[in-house]
Amino acid sequence: WDLAKAWLLFCAGSHGEQCRQDAVPKEASDGYVPFFRLIDVQRGCVVDAQADWNYVALSYVWGQSPMLKLLLSNKDSLYKDNALLSDEFTIAQTIKDAIEVTQRLEEKYLWVDSLCIMQDDYAEKEKVIGEMDLIYNRAGITIVAAAGSNAGAG
């Protein structure tokens, strides 16, 4: 992990914010972006995010296996500290692995579509899906887990 962290420091020192300066959604004012959530990997929960927060993004294959999703019915529970670390919820292995990678890289926030987009609010889902290019572009790091056939593959 030390080598990966060294690469990230080199990248940040060489490129700075110029790589991401135009990626924040245009409607962001005072740092607030509607519907933008992240997983706080230190607190183990979903949080409402600010546009200027640094984060890691996960790109992965959903597949057909059932997995935990952010829904109107479980939002309050997923926003509680340690919710994603508790036995109350079962998290797909790929997402668990991404949380661990984010922690080991000493980053605080992770964006995962299934847990950061309200899956049963179709207006929100449509809006955020339309901005996914900005979300991935704005990420300091994107983890690509493309080898598995579903989110449970790890």
UniProtKB/TrEMBL annotation:
InterPro entries: HET. It comes from the Eukaryota. PANTHER family: DOMAIN PROTEIN, PUTATIVE-RELATED, HETEROKARYON INCOMPATIBILITY DOMAIN-CONTAINING PROTEIN. It holds the Pfam family HET. Residues 55-151 form the Heterokaryon incompatibility domain. This is Heterokaryon incompatibility domain-containing protein.
